[in-house]
Amino acid sequence: MNYELLQPDSLSGAMEALAQHGDEAKVLAGGTAVVLMLQQKLIAPTVLVSIGRVPDLDHIRTEPDGLHIGPLTILRDMERSSVIQRRFPLLAQACGEVGNVRIRNQATLGGNLAEADYASDPPTALLALGAQVTATSVRGARTIPLEDFLVGFYTTDLEPDELITDIFIPASTPGSRMTYLKYKSRSSEDRPCTGVAAIAAFGAKTCTDLRVAVGAACEVPQRLPAVESLARGQALTDELIGEIAAGYADSIETLEDIRGSARYRTQMIRVHVYRALEELRNGHR
Amino acid sequence: MAIGKSVPMLDSVARVTGTVPYASNLKLPDMLVGKVFRSSVPHARTIKLDVSAAEQLPGVVAIVTAADFAGDDTPNLHFGSTIQDQPVVAGDRIRFIGEPVALIAAESVVIADQAMDLIELEYEEIPAIFDAEEALLPGAPVLHEAFPDNLLGHSKLRRGDIEAGFAAADEIFEEVFSSPVAQQASLETQVAAARWKDGKLTVWTGSQSPYTVRRVLSAIFDLDVEDVRVIVPPLGGGFGGKGNIRTQPMAAALAWKVGDRPVKLVMTRAEEFLTVTKHAAKIIVKSGVKLDGTFTARKVTIYWNAGAYASSSAHLVPAGMLRALGPYRIPAGHVDSYGIYTNLPIAAAYRGAMSSQGVFAHESHMDTIAHRLGIDPLELRIKNLLRTDDIFATGERLHDIHFVECLEAAADGLGWHEPLQRENGTVKKRGRGVAVMMKNTIANSSSECRIKLDAEGRVTLYTSTVETGQGGHTAMAQIAAEALGVPIEALTVIGPDTAETPPDAQTASSRSTHMMGNAVLNGAASLRQHLAEAAAPILEWSPEDLSVADGYVFVTTQPQERIPYAEVLGRKNIAALTATGKYWTNEGKLDPETGQGISTPDWHQGAGACEVEVDTQTGKVTVLRYHSASFAGRVVNPTLAGLQNDGNVIFGLGASLLEEVAIDGGQITNPNLSDYMLPSFLDIPVELKNVSLEAEGSTFQGIGEMTLPPVAPAIANAIYDAVGARIRDLPLTAEKVLRVIHEQGEADDEQ
Ligand SMILES: Cc1cc2nc3c(=O)[nH]c(=O)nc-3n(C[C@H](O)[C@H](O)[C@H](O)COP(=O)(O)OP(=O)(O)OC[C@H]3O[C@@H](n4cnc5c(N)ncnc54)[C@H](O)[C@@H]3O)c2cc1C
User: Fold this and answer.
1) Does the CA dihedral B416-B417-B418-B423 come out positive or negative?
2) What is the distance between the alpha carbons of residues B32 and A201, in angstroms, rounded to a whole number?
3) A12 and A161 in contact (C-beta within 8 Å)?
4) pLDDT (tens digit per residue) in A146-202
5) What's the whole-number mean pLDDT along residues A208-220?
6) What does the alpha-carbon distance between residue A269 and residue A247 come to, in Å, rounded to a whole number?
7) How many angstroms separate the CA atoms of B617 and B749, rounded?
8) Do residues A76 and A114 touch, judged by C-beta distance below 8 A?
9) Which residues are CB-neighbours of B489 under 8 A, at least 6 positions away?
């Protein structure tokens, strides 16, 4: 562990440090993932760029188009934010389910996304919400839809010199119901075996819009628009819910790890998509 | 009266505020950092080990390899508490992934890490074997030439005519159970610091067995035992993993090579998994039963996977034999307990050692039998449980037996006889289960202590009982305070430090409160005698006419004629009175062919009963309620005893539901506490209750483990009760439960 720690106190300072050191540098936010990787010698950066002193990276700001969240916002603040609880309760749920309170008090949203660990909760909720990530470097800023940001197993679209500077959640249809179901196959503080985020808008009798994202069971969280569209204009009957749950279970290529085999995860996707939709239909939040 | 009171743990404030002087935090002047270079292959012949580049690195002070043990005047490479098969560092042979090959002493961790990268090891791989049963097959790779069939021990129990027993049975049941490799997972990892001075060795270490460490180190370095000093500060957990001898030889060898500076070696969490594990076991239980639930015979075969070196397996394999049949009246009983070498890290004691695996087997098996015969599982047990004066399978007559009371206390606490609402219209189903355990303790061991009373009336207890966090020192202080008639505040407990505190076998097998507790009683009795003798001339009575209690020496017939302890010493001008106490047992010489004899001074007894909820769509099991009971004989500290009982249950939830060391080709793939899963506080049953049973005239009995082994079978039995799924291999994961529920469903559909 031989690295230099930089603690720039401005965004431009952080970006310049990253531009200068490129592949050799590693961004440090809450450190819950970085420190473990350093200890296990999975990474060997020569420079750690801590962004803890960069101002205004931990905002939760409501704007007309939606909600802007700073990457340094800790998950505990996400969980407890009244704005998030009111407008995007599934995101508060997903952040509140992460690990344990000690982790949530330290782990940041930006770190969670940049880490792109498949066994995570917030990305699945954010995918269902249609979130976008802003990445900034000395070369400028670009906005990336989350589905393009999360590329694969521990892989994102970020360039080595880019920082996540904002996470944007567009306003959702008023009156939408939403939920996040985390399934832990092991202890109550474990990472997810599967996670299901579901958002539904309802008309008088029928569902007008449905978004379902499934994560942790696969390399990156996934939505299946074709399956979601089965619900549009339909009443969410047991049968239809079952069909959608089966659609997700059948289409998603699941992975195997210590929390469950690929086959088990397919079963769990089916069970939890069903449960999530049942919950939305029954009107709970 | 200090005994029977829930006095707070003596170091409770220090534990909570983080000021306990753990060995991990030890800093000695000029101390160097030790690091271990390990093998990355499971079985190999070493061709060349080149540490020269690493040695040249500035800041590297010494590197130890097997070559340092090659001369005449060098330490001995091999050690072991029973079988000396383990090298301090691997020599010409590597036997598991993660085996120490070279040791580095450096000025800093960073330098030591850099040195690691400069070490070059050339080897030739040879076939490896990981499965214990397969290791016994002809043609299997051999780990140690002295053990050509990889069998390090085979313990046999033979009682009655087994074939006649099976022939007399109405039904025969045979089942196979397995438990995986697990890890003790103490919060504090293994640590040893060593320093040499004038040819004498001092070691500071987190160990449950300071005197074993002293003996083995003196053998490695050809020293008199007095020239090895072992100091053990309070531990951050032991759970069996810190018993026997672990990292101490490596630290001592590094400091020996360095010469004049101390070296400290602390295992990382990943290294902890390479240092010690729990035995994986495969257990075959076969029982012959009459339709009325009477047993005619039971045969148990156990394959213990000991890993690459014998270590404590040499004495644990016989213990596993004794615990395998279960606490039942069975006229014919045979057990074969095999300890087997494989190319895996060393297995050793794990809280409830060699009991948990066997109890999971025989208690699950009892329910299989009960269900088939249509007998209530509790009733089948109570009908067959051993009672005082019964003859056990070893031929010994049993005394102080309370299995029935333990089991009934747990079952009644749960409300076994009350109706259970199994379903509530959801996908969740509930069920209940019970289990009971028996365990022998170390049959021939001794404990000694020294007690000093000074002229201010303060009492110092010198004991080698290790404070592992269990409250051992508090219990000893309570016993001493009561036996001497002084307030607990007058007590200071010192030790272990082999230069200061007298020998004790070890802090293991739940023996301390019983063994050291009685040694303290014995020492206190002689200190009272010394007081009476010292006071006799002052009071002008003979010592026989005097009593010693509540801080006074007094005339037995005229209690008002009395004199405080401190005054006795003051007036006689004695700085301090000192007495030693000793307690020992001398059993356990069993016939090697039949296992007949007296196996233990006392039987450890415990039981559990639980209610679980199973999600039939995910297989996930939630333990809602758990009641445990242990036989404590006489409770020293009700709160601490209760915490042992409850702590066992919480600890046991891990091995039951979650814990499994994942191994791929000999490589541990989850050596961290994110992937190796321990229970969290949120997993603790909402209703968790315990009882420590006492008995008139009984002495202190060990309770450190008794409520642990029943946890897995009680849960497995409750799962069966809830959803009809019998799982025979631990842990009881959601996925396994769901698989069996589905298989069950398919089988039902076919009918
Ligand atoms: C015990 C434990 C349990 C956990 N359980 C869960 C769980 O149940 N569910 C779950 O979802 N997660 C879980 N996690 C993961 C945890 O949520 C993440 O480790 C955490 O969110 C990462 O955030 P951080 O601020 O600590 O990131 P760091 O460790 O500082 O960084 C993580 C990665 O992100 C990069 N990075 C950080 N910030 C930025 C940025 N602004 N721009 C670009 N790159 C950046 C870093 O370079 C690094 O690659 C758990 C972690 C632990 C240790």
Assistant:
1) positive
2) 65
3) no
4) 999 999 999 999 999 999 999 999 998 888 999 999 999 999 999 999 999 999 999
5) 97
6) 10
7) 17
8) no
9) none
Same domain, B387 and B476: no
Report the alpha-carbon distance of residue B96 to residue B656 in Å, rounded.
27
* CATH number (domain holding residue A203): 3.30.390.50
* Alpha-carbon gap: B665 to the closest alpha carbon of chain A (Å): 16
The protein residue whose alpha carbon is closest to atom 36 in ligand 1 is: A111
Measured by CA distance, the residue closest to atom 12 of ligand 1 is A120
Taking residues A50-66, report their average pLDDT: 96
Residues B416 and B319 reside in one and the same domain: yes
Numbered residues of chain A with Cβ closer than 8 Å to any chain B Cβ: 1-2, 36, 39-40, 100, 183, 185-191, 258, 260-261, 264, 267-268, 271
Q: How far is C-alpha B498 from the chain's CA centre? A: 21
Asked if residue B610 and residue B569 are part of one domain, the reply reads no
Residue of B270, B617, B670 with shortest CB distance to A258:
B670
The Cα angle at residue A76 between residues A73 and A79, in degrees rounded to 5 = 100
Mean pLDDT per 10-residue interval, chain B, length 751 residues: 93 93 97 98 98 98 98 95 97 98 97 97 98 98 98 98 98 98 98 98 98 98 98 97 97 97 97 98 98 98 98 95 97 98 98 96 98 98 98 96 98 98 94 97 93 96 97 97 96 98 95 96 98 97 96 96 96 96 91 95 96 98 98 97 98 98 97 95 97 95 96 98 97 98 82 62
Does ipTM surpass 0.90 in this model?
A: yes
The tokens describing B464, both together, are: 């080698």
A137 min Cα distance to partner chain B (Å): 32
Please pick, among B705, B735, B743, B746, the residue that the annotation labels catalytic.
B705
Q: How far, in Å, are A270, B243, B722 from residue B347 at the CA level?
A: 40, 11, 34
* Structural domain harbouring A217: 177-281
Is residue B136 one of the residues assigned to a domain?
no
In a domain, B331, yes or no: yes
Query: pTM of the entire structure?
Result: 0.97
Report the alpha-carbon distance of residue B256 to residue B248 in Å, rounded.
12
Q: Count CB neighbours of A165 within 10 A.
A: 23
Q: Encode B539-603 in three state secondary structure.
A: HCCCHHHEEEECCEEEECCEEEEEEEHHHHHHHHCCCEEEEEEEEEEECCCCCCCCCCCCCCCCE
CB B539 within 8 A of CB B561: yes
CATH code (residue B530): 3.30.365.10
Q: What is the pLDDT of residue A285?
A: 38
In a domain, B503, yes or no: yes
Please, is B357 exposed, middle or buried when counting C-beta atoms within 10 Å of its C-beta (0-12, 13-18, 19+)? buried
Give me the domain span that covers residue B566: 445-585
What gap in Å lies between CA B472 and CA B146, rounded to an integer?
Answer: 40
